[in-house]
Amino acid sequence: MAVTMNTRASTQAAVRGGLVSGKRDVKGILFASATLACLLLALLMLVLLMWEVVSQAIPVFDRRGFSFLTGELGSNPDEVGVSQGLWGSLIIAVFVIGLSFPIGIAAGVYLEEYAKPTRFTRFIQLNIRNLAGIPSVVYGILGLVVFVQGIKFFTGGRSIIAAGITLAILVLPIIIITTTEAIRAVPAGLREAGMGVGATRWESTRDHVLPYAAPGILTGTMLAIARALGEAAPLILIGAITGALRSAPGQGLVDKLQGKFTAMPIVIYGWSNEVNKPGKETGLTFTDLTSAAIVVLLVMVLLLNVAAILLRNRFEKGRQG
Amino acid sequence: MHADGPLTESTELRMDQLTTESAAAPAADTAAVFTTQGLEVYYGDFRAVRDVDLTIRQHEITAFIGPSGCGKTTVLRCFNRMNDLIDTARVKGSIRYHGVDLYDPQVNAVEVRRRIGMVFQKPNPFPKSIYDNVAYGPRLAGIKKRTELDAVVERSLHGAALWDEVKGRLKASGLSLSGGQQQRLCIARAIAVEPEVILMDEPCSALDPIATARIEDLMQEIKQQYTIVIVTHNMQQAARVSDRTAFFTTEVNPESDRRTGRMVEFGRTSKMFSKPDDERTEQYVTGRFG
To answer: ipTM for the complex?
Structure first.
């Protein structure tokens, strides 16, 4: 008995010795540390940027309060505000949601659900990917030629309509690509199950494919809106106003849409070029105002993203049934 | 027809041999539902399976057996034109459903699938409630009244032997069920549209033996109302449940060096498993290859 106890104890000791020793995974630890360091570096940059912007913006919101959101463009740092930029960016968001969401999602559905996988289809898909990589200035030139000059009777020239359509086209490839990828991730079994009980292609797309792909599609639309709201280059080419922009009283909506315009990135760009002289009453410079405008744009994008995330969570719940 | 009860294989065989052209054959042939002649299926230029000549009869269970890659699933998916979803798939030869060419350009694949249901290898309930899973097909077919739908759902879940387990939680997600229950839910979903035929593509391959036995019992029950075609890897399953068996095998094409599936033999299951005509069938069912 004692002997067996002994051998059992010695076996345990031997096994334990083998299990606890062995080489430490030095390379693995180094690799993990390196990836962590890179992550921290990226976060640090972001924090520094945010700190720089927010700390300069706080006095603006503090001293100007609501008037910063309602004020218009001008040369007096005590009076100017972002209202016209906000309005312009909001209209751009409406154009992106109203034009590129339906067109982009529909195009993606066609490519994945209906198009036969011919060489021509592959060629088109490749080109859509290329379009997503084209510099935004090029879209600005397109907007200038086609929407500002080409269909002036509709856009009114250098207007928010021309800008909205241009940016909607700019983000179209992003939406098409994310839609096709989200649809490709739908399990084949789901589609077959629907069609197995007699669903048509359209019914199976409506009832199963699109609901399942919705979270992925929403991620793409989120990226698209953020991109459209942040673009300045195409707007400069189309002719957004950087200086004073007087809105005439009693303008109708159509006049307003076809008239001169600006948007948040242009406001930021314009103010960063202004003479840096403190205002007499508030002591705020255009540099401070620039930071405050950046915060306003960030909050706007954030709010849209929160809306999209809430929507996505609802769809994801639906995915679990 | 089945009143004479389950005949043992030996009696059936002896009677087959003794009766020459008699009316006393053990089970008279029921009406043909599908007839294929020289059926071949291609994926692009690749011929996946050939020589499919068989007849699937009403209220029988027909099993397709054979090694992997022999084309049995491919053939099964022709019967409800599910292969249409694969762009490169093409069919040669004829496949007739009650005499109508299924691949006639005028035939609507959606109508085909309403009459010929399918249960897939992996249980694939919709990410919806149990109720909505079963009611989906009937709703597509135009049933809108709640009372009617309730009746269809209850009848279908009863038919799939699932009602007692889920009657208290029809609103729960179909995905919350166990694997075997999910597969029975898929069967309920298939029979909810009252098809004539149910195609089953290895319906038990993802299930444990107990769930498998339940599905097999269920198949025996529902074959009174439906015609069933089942693809299975499991020869014992084919022997247990089916009335007729088609054996497929793979062979290498000497010209292209590619494997092609081929139907070797088709006959009554009792005969296929005891005295098959073809040597390859015998080798397969006795476990000597495959």
So the answer is: 0.80
